[in-house]
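Batch manifest, entry 17 of 40.
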Amino acid sequence: MSRLPLADPQDLPPFLKSMHDGAGEGDWSTRHCARAFAAHPDILERYLAFYYPFHASEPGSVLDGRIKELVRLRIATLNGCQTCKAARLAPSDVSEQEAAIGVDDPTEAAFSGRERAALALAEQMALDHLSFDDTAMRGLRQHFSHAETLELMMMIGQYIGFGRMLAMLQLEETHCPIEPAADPQPQTAGSLR
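Output type: structure tokens
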């Protein structure tokens, strides 16, 4: 149950009404999100105006969509968000096998070094961001330009933050919450509950 009041669907402003009514039959999460954001519809509309173009690598983006979709799916697992994990925002870029299993065990999947570096960064930002040091930055720079690094970190940060906010407000279906890292090394999927 949402921790914020849910507006009546017929009272939603146009943007939220469209979002609510356009959600699939079983997509209660999108419907509840639209209803909860009736208290501040402009913030969600502006946020999504940033999110979707950058996630989809439209003009202005410097990072390919596959990388962003891989890290989005990894963060969905780390955030414990079943709804986000089930969503396929780039099915032509990331196979079902990679989405369902691969991102959670990147050492076993056939990812490139660049993709593994992005997944490792996503995990580190989600689980132990304070352990990121100059050595980690040098490793990241072997795979990404300065501009790509900034975009990757911005996207990972918003995937983490928005997903956690929705979970805290009980607007997402969640499971296995994130546990803090016990040591400076990022956790692997096997170390989660």
